[in-house]
Amino acid sequence: xxxxxxxxLPQPYDPIRWKASLLLVLFSLALLTVLGRLxxxxxxxxxxxxxxxxxxxxSRVLLRAERGKIYDRQMxxxxxxxxxxxxxxxxxxxxxxxxxxxxxxxxxxVPASTYFDLMKRSEGRFVWLARGINTVVYPDLDTLxxxxxxxxxxxxxxxxxxxVASQIIGVTNVDNTGVSGxxxxxxxxxxxQSGFVVMQRDGRGRLRPGVNPERQAARNGxxxxxxxxxxxxxxxxxxxxxxxxxxxxxxxxxIAIEPSTGDVVAMASYPSFDPSRLDKASSESxxxxxxxDQYEPGSTMKAVTAAALIEEKxxxxxxxxxxxxxxxxxxxxxxxxxxxxxRVAFATALEQSSNVVFAQVSTMIPDxxxxxxxxxxxxxxxxxxxxxxxxxxxxxxxHEFDATTKTYMSFGYQLAATALQIxxxxxxxxxxxxxxxxxxxKAITTAEGSIEHEVKPQVIRRVISAETARTLTDMLVGVVExxxxxxxxxxxxxxxxxxxxxxxxEDGLYSKKAYTASFVGFYPADQPRIxxxxxxxxxxxxxxxxxxxxxxxRRIVQKTMTTLVLDGETREKIAASAQADSVIMPDVRGVDxxxxxxxxxRLGLHVDHVEQGIVVVQHPAAGSKVERGTNVTFTVxxxxxxxxxxxxxxxxxRRAITILHAAGAEVRVQGSGKVRxxxxxxxxxxxxxx
Amino acid sequence: xxxxITTHIDWFILLPxxxxxxxxxxxxxxxxxxxxxxKFGSSEQLFWNHAIRVLIGLVLMIFCAKVDYHFWQxxxxxxxxxxxxxxxxxxxxxxxxxxxxRWVRFGPVNFQPSELAxxxxxxxxxxxxxAKKVFIRDWRKSIVPVMVWMIPICGLIALQPNLSTASVxxxxxxxxxxxxxxxxxxxxxxxxxxxxxxxxxxxxxxxxLRRILSYVGSSNAxxxxxxxxxxxxxxxxxxxxxxxGPGQSRQRDWFLxxxxxxxxxxxxxxxxxxxxxxxxxxxxxLIVWRGYAVARKAPDAFGRLLAGGITTTLAxxxxxxxxxxxxxxxxxxxxxxxxxxxGSSVFFSAIAVGVLLNVSSHxxxxxxxxxxxxxxxxxxxxxx
Lengths: 690, 384
Known about the structure:
A: Beta-lactamase, 4 domains, five-stranded antiparallel sheet, 32% helix, disordered N terminus, B: mainly alpha
């Protein structure tokens, strides 16, 4: 080296030589320390950190199983599932709130300014806007894309027939768990098995689908085929509501059973509720009163007493009994009749519902024998129907009987029973003396709706002989033809039945104001298809079973005869008698056009122009009273077009997957990088990458 | 005079630096993609910013490599005064970020005056100490003039507050004084005084204390600092030996804060694995080795101190940044030279390396003493 600038050669020794070397060594050691530390982190501990990484990248997303459908006995959908969408907003990410809120406002009817207020008032990054919107009806909302608009898909029960059979079907809570009705008793079957898919998340918690993610498909819940007939159920509910209104009763119940199988064809309770308006439903309106409420049955019990006496051969219908003109003094009181009779045949005493006669004839059999018959007819034991909340009623044991217990029991006091217990006793008579197990589920279906397991009708016991049953049936026909049940009479149909008007206990005393009015019977008497009870709690304008309950019974029979499988002759007669009737226009909005047509057709309404698609507008409006044969018009939303198949060729894989998932496609991936080609196979899109 | 200078290019400095700068474009692209996508609506926003800055940086580096380093010797005082001017400006028109004012905005350009100040102080300290070489043992003539500049600069930076940069600049100046052969005892007094001042300053603000506590593993730690370090370690660990592959980082998806800035080294570790990390650290070792070689062999005291100062700056920044990301050092906000996203850091690192290259071109590092290079011209330097 010659010279640098003004420095002469040779340079004097500069200690920077060794000091720079020292610094080099020190910094090299420092940097090697870093490498040593990273060897530990990356190589030795690498697997532990990779596990930590995987945990924070992956998020198991629950795939909800779809809850099983509920069908009526003719496999018509009653409760299905629909996809609803709930909307929330992330105020920091929203790009075009005006457009989003405008569209939401169209769907909900809530002014867009309300959503602006909601967004402004909240400090969080997740603000609920609207829940449970059926986006099938508002497709613009479904396709709206804004990074700040958060959508949550929430399956919701769709009740095809609106509030019909709502108490029996019951409701589910937000966790998709049944809380009442069949949703509880068959919860595990209906619920199915949820699955999962492993999604990839980022540090902000945003999820996106990964490539070929680990997934376990959800197994959708089983369906249920009910024994309920929707038509009969609807008529029962409508007529019960009308009857309760007209009689000024507090509540009421109707149960119709098929005697030969125990199938509950209809089971109505009033007050009822609309499952789509749960916020307005009281717990009162959700009870299945036919099994949760027990009453002293009153005169309907006389058939059971008569059955015991006839079966024990203590009396025949033609035997003369003394009605004592409606007044009988017994040990602790006086038995009084509403329809006093003198010396008459036993059958006539039943027709006129003479308490005096039954108080006397009940003494013909000992307590324990009478008790055996009452118990065998199902009193005092739960019926064991597959619905939650059943009570057993009250039946004293023979050793608890006092001197007059049997006397009172013979015409329906000093014991309590549910409407189902009473109607099942009559169904037993209708079924030739053999009691069947009442049930509401006919079969368990697969998720797709084919029968998986049929529930066989089950015999409980023979209670009385077929002979006795026949005798009783004739006597009960007499009640309708000639006696207190004449309000239930329909020309052309032989109806067997019995009225009941029971005073209710109030503060330990029998009230002169609170009554239970009931009518229970079966038809056609010769070959019974239906046993039915109508029970009204505390009617006020007309307190008698014969005047308040029997007409309801009659109207239901008239309106449903056409739909039930009957012999042709009877059907025609009934159809003629029901001709002039009007029907309540059902709400068919949200239902497929073809389904709506068949529903309306069964009601005797005529649809002008049937189209496939979801009904959005109907005329006449739901709930209005229309004559049979009225023309109904409705507007449908055409079915959604073939699922879009977005073209993702040339896009980065990640974006392609996101787009395809958003379009509802299942994605299979080969390779990585940009998408070179894509092939469709149904909803499955296979993308080939570079 | 030019014919008396032995010129050459030290490829062992130039090539690793060019490689680091070019690779940093890929690193920043990947590390910033998720952040930029959400913040700017384009995942390429920061990538383009950085790519342009790297290009400007390369031009600046080559330009400075062609400027005779003595050019800086008598301009250093002016430059350091400009730097102090900017540092004062920060307090009046600075941009606030994360509770500190470290930036000044000039139109579209965000400028970090502390980066200029660091470079200016290294220049001026080298200049001062070279001039006072004869009186180096007289503290009034050697130490005091340096302190006159260092104390206001470190003080102003510490007040931003940016204690880590202030401490590192203090350390660099001390190292330069050590290399200039300032009396060891006098130096020790200054170091102790500096550490004392820093300690008082550190405990005077809660966030600084908590950062230190989180380093020593106290439960009183700053949660966000602990989270950031944990995420940095997950990035390294997830990378393993070979890495997850270029552009495949997951930690940058909002898991690791500052993934494209002070913690970009973790993303490099994640995508390129231990192998990549070794190559980066290896590149810095090479640069530091050659840098100190220049410091040993530069033709004059100014050149030697300048090369030593610049090399120390690079070494300290590389070590502190890497050490922070892997948890060897407490969390501080120093960028990794040439790698991290940030214009000021890229520009002043490039200028500093340009100056270092020029010193090296005068030093004849390769040649045995006395041997001349055949081609004495500077034309050998790449021009593009």
